[in-house]
Each structure stands twice: as structure tokens, then as C-alpha cells.
């Protein structure tokens, strides 16, 4: 609404920049949803324009000039309006006054929650400005240092060849590049949607199909495990992203609604067949025959938050081709 007011405003030249900024930021947000943060400034400005127009209109509705005031002497002091004066409000003003009261009530209701919103924004800003992979956790008796993530990247740096390639979801790409000093298949700067979808296909496909692809791309697979926001919890979204390009992950199901956890917490049949689920339960399941000869678990962190698997039977031809190109 603020953009519409801005277009038809008498100051549209001055505020057209914010409308253009909103359009451009929205265009890139459609390409990558997290870029919607760039639209925060134009949205705030245009929302302020919209609220300002509403308040101006409401104020105009409850204040109007006295028809006889123009004939009053200039030095005459205004009289205090009595209740009788207010009872002579023109009937045509009633709809506008009702509108004004609604606007005033809405603005006051928003103002009462402004301090809560400010506190929420401040806490979020502090939390997001200090990302960390080493943190303290209270186990019920004392605080313990959780160092699983840094430890896993250090293990990769010390125990894998310098030219090792690591397959993981793109969230951990920068960690692998900077902390482990190893090549990741994708990171936060990967704009190729098909590239991201291919990694998702490697994680969400059955083991035999997944290994047939991964052996040409990577030497190791890194997974966040241990529950909470681990890769298995993200897997329904990973499957949906991949299914937009490779529709054989969830056949005849564009939203991958069948790739999920059931109400009792158990995995659906599609999730249970996935490589991600099989690797997540490596060693816990009695049937690991499908993983034998394809993947080997080589590292598990202290609190089992990270697991690293070695890809067996890696295609040397594909690796040499990648190094040449």
C-alpha cells in the first residue's frame, strides 16, 4: 500500500527510489529467499508513508475549519468549545470520524507493542551478529563446552588429503572452506539452483542411486547429526528443493509431502530409503548392507553432533577431470 501511495504522491520523484529499491530487492528475493532482508529498508520507508497518509487523513476528518472563523477578528482569542458545540458536528463528518477512530485505535494498539518488537529485534541482532560453532550447554548438572563442529573440521584438515572434496548441505560450505581448508561442493554463495538440487538428490535418493552420483563429485560426506536442527530435520526441505529439478525424488508429489516424519516420530517410507537417513543411522541399524562397499564412517564427534563418511570406490577419472578444469 505504501508503494501505491508513493506512486501517486505529489513527492513521487523523491520517493521513487524506494519503490525501485523494493522492486529490485524483491526480484532477487525470488531467486534466493534469504535475500529478502534487502527489502527491509524500502518496506520500512513505504510502510511509514502509508501510516503517515492514514494519520493525516484521520486528522483531517476530525478537524475542520469553522465557516465563521474567517470573519472573526484577528486579535480575538479562541473560545473554549463546549459540549453543545460538539453536538453540532455535520452529519457528513460521521463516516470520516469513525474511520479516524479506527485508525487511532490501530495505531495505539501497535504502539503498545512497539517496545516488545524493539526488544525482539535487538535480541535477534545480537544473536545473529555473534555466530559461533563452540558454545556452552547445560546438561542438567553443569555447563559443558560443546566443541563438536570445530573438532570435526579440524579432523578433516588433519586427516584428509589436501585435494579432498566434501559433500554436505550448502549451509556448512564456508566452514569447510575456511576451517577445514577443504573443497566443498556448495556454500552460501552458490546461486546455481540446479547445483544445490543435485546435492539434495545425493542426500535424499536411495543409497545405490546416491553413491552412483557422489563417487564422481566427492571423497567425503559430512552430516550434522544428533537431533535438533540436524540434517535429518532439514531433509523434508532438502527434498522439496531437489524435487523442483529432479522430480523422481518424490514422484507425482511436487511438494514432497510424503518425505517427512510421521506423527509418531518415525520416518516415512521415502525418508527411510534416503541416503541421509541411512547414514544418520549408520551403526544403529541392524541392516547396513546397502552402505557396505559404498560409504564408510571415519569420524563421529564427541557428542555425536557431526559424522563424516568416506566415499568408497571414488571415480579417479572424474576427479582428474575436475582438477584439470
Give a verbal description of the structure:
Residues 165-220 form the STT3/PglB/AglB core domain. It is found in: Endomembrane system. GO terms for molecular function: metal ion binding; oligosaccharyl transferase activity. The protein is α/β, with parallel strands linked by helices and 325 residues long. The protein has 2 domains: 2-129, no CATH class; 145-324, Rossmann fold (3-Layer(aba) Sandwich). The protein contains 14 helices and 7 strands. The strands form 2 sheets. A 5-stranded mixed sheet has the order 4-3-5-7-6. Strand 3 (165-167), helix 8 (173-178) and strand 4 form a beta-alpha-beta unit. It is elongated.
List the helices and strands and how they pair.
Blueprint: H1 2-7, H2 12-31, H3 40-62, H4 83-86, H5 94-112, H6 114-129, E1 135-138, E2 143-146, H7 148-159, E3 165-167, H8 173-178, E4 183-184, H9 193-204, H10 207-214, E5 220-224, H11 231-243, H12 269-273, H13 275-280, E6 295-300, E7 306-311, H14 316-324
Helix pairs in contact: 2-3, 3-5, 9-10, 9-11
Task: Describe what is shown at a glance.
It contains 14 helices and 7 strands. 49% of the residues lie in helices and 9% in strands.
